[in-house]
């Protein structure tokens, strides 16, 4: 959905960046080209970028406190020895550097604040990393170097790879604890790198292990259930007692063996898709379908698309799709980890429930109004309860622009919300033609960092049945609409 309401200021800022940025380093311009070096064996240690790569690096005029970084994977198991970054000329400040995975901080250190050009900051201990796992290396700064469109193509050097498009990540300060940068813009490179080695030097930092539970039995394809209702999970999973995060959402256990398969259209009532690694869209055209303990990924518009019928999704990870992880009417999602989306987390219609789920790490495509939860049509029976939702444009954008008006109820209760121009937007549709009624907004906690404020609405009081218990997460101070 094109951002026509409130994202113009950010796009304008980046247009200004392109107009006023001044090159500060000489070298060969290679931004935007696929960089592949040492694709056979690899030197040890190795980094992603060379001095020549920075030839088109420019100083960004933005001066807000921000964490900037790069997403990367390794072909081989090994160790991160150090994090590197390219500061703006004359920057002698001390900068914290970090390594993250799935939103969790794995290692941190600080620069000395001395020197020019690439700064290499050794970690206190080499950090063990696993082949194929995605990590983020970042540093905190008020000013930074950038090259837009650098990640239109992937960069590979030996065993290291920085994927294309949704790379170059950032997150503005929220006023509380540090968070992994998970927003991107214009495939920009912010010139953060790592020093990787297959051999450690000194004692080693081990990343936290996944939870240890029995591995589920793999099922190669959907199977019909004798029940016409919504099937129950075969394993008992205790709902999270804290806000949802990477450790209590998604596949159980995190390293479960899943059976690879392709996207499908489900036409059997009561069908169960379980313990699958699904590449492509799952289209629902039958009632009472269950998706349980699966990974669903791809670059198509939707992860799970409800055409007719209904679906219940539990303990599942959905990532990489262009428009939304789950879309339209008649679905329930519980303990779902949604990330790396090109636009929205979920598009919610009538008879939909999102609970105990983690929506984060969005990588918006150009022009996307990237919302954690988006309501575009008037709806009935919507529940959004006890989720962590970090959205680039908004955490929730509730605007029935496509009509008709909706009677509700729309329950928004007990969520942890962050991000966007406004974190929660509840507005009319199509410039006042359509309205959603029945909002009950209660007990939500707002993190800081939204550009303009936590909440905006132009709907009248009659559209709300409740607004209570909504507070700042850090202080507990009330937030009014």
TrEMBL record:
The UniProt annotation puts the region (Disordered) at 200-258
Residue span(s) of domain DUF4082: 58-192
Domain Right handed beta helix stretches: 275-393
Q: Which domain of life is it from?
A: Bacteria
The record's Pfam families line, in alphabetical order, gives: Beta_helix, DUF4082
Gene3D superfamilies found in the cross-reference section: Single-stranded right-handed beta-helix, Pectin lyase-like (2.160.20.10)
Q: Which InterPro entries match?
A: Beta_helix, DUF4082, PbH1, Pectin_lyas_fold, Pectin_lyase_fold/virulence
Compositionally biased, Low complexity: which spans? 214-240
Under what name is this protein listed?
A: DUF4082 domain-containing protein
């Amino acid at each position: 959905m094109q951002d026509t309401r409130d994202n113009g200021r950010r796009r304008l800022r980046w247009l200004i960046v392109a107009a006023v940025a001044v090159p500060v380093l000489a070298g060969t311009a290679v931004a935007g080209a696929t960089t592949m070096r040492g694709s056979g064996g690899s030197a040890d240690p190795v980094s992603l970028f060379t001095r020549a790569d920075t030839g088109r690096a420019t100083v960004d005029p933005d001066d807000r406190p921000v964490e900037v970084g790069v997403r990367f994977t390794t072909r081989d198991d090994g160790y991160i020895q150090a994090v590197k970054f390219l500061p703006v000329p004359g920057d002698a400040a001390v900068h914290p550097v970090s390594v993250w995975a799935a939103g969790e901080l794995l290692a941190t250190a600080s620069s000395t604040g001395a020197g020019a050009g690439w700064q290499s900051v050794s970690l206190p201990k080499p950090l063990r990393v696993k082949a194929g796992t995605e990590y983020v290396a970042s540093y905190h700064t008020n000013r930074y170097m950038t090259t837009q469109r650098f990640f239109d193509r992937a960069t590979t050097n030996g065993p290291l790879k920085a994927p294309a498009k949704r790379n170059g990540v950032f997150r503005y300060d929220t006023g509380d604890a540090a968070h992994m940068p998970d927003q991107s813009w214009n495939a920009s490179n912010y010139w953060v790198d790592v020093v990787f080695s297959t051999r450690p030097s000194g004692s080693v930092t081990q990343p936290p292990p996944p939870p240890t539970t029995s591995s589920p039995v793999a099922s190669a394809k959907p199977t019909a259930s004798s029940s016409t209702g919504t099937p129950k999970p075969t394993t008992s999973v205790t709902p999270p007692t804290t806000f949802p995060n990477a450790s209590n959402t998604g596949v159980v256990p995190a390293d479960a063996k899943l059976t690879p398969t392709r996207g499908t259209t489900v036409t059997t009532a009561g069908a169960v898709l379980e313990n699958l690694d699904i590449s492509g869209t799952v289209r629902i055209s039958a009632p009472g379908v269950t998706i349980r303990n699966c990974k669903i990924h791809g670059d198509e518009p939707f992860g799970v698309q409800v055409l007719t019928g209904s679906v219940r999704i539990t303990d599942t990870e959905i990532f990489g799709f262009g428009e939304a992880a789950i879309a339209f009417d008649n679905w329930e999602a519980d303990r779902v980890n949604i990330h790396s989306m090109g636009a929205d987390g979920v598009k919610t219609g009538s008879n939909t429930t999102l609970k105990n789920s983690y929506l984060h790490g969005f990588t918006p495509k150009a022009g996307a109004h990237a919302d954690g939860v988006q309501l575009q049509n008037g709806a009935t029976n919507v529940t959004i309860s006890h989720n962590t939702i970090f959205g680039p444009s908004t955490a929730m954008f509730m605007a029935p622009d496509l009509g008709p008006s909706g009677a509700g109820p729309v329950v928004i209760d007990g969520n942890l919300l962050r991000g966007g121009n406004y974190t929660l937007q509840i507005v009319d549709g199509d410039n006042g033609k359509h309205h959603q009624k029945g909002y009950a907004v209660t007990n939500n906690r707002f993190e800081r960092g939204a550009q303009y404020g936590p909440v905006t609405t132009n709907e009248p009081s009659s559209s709300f049945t409740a607004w209570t218990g909504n507070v700042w997460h850090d202080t507990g101070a009330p937030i009014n609409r």
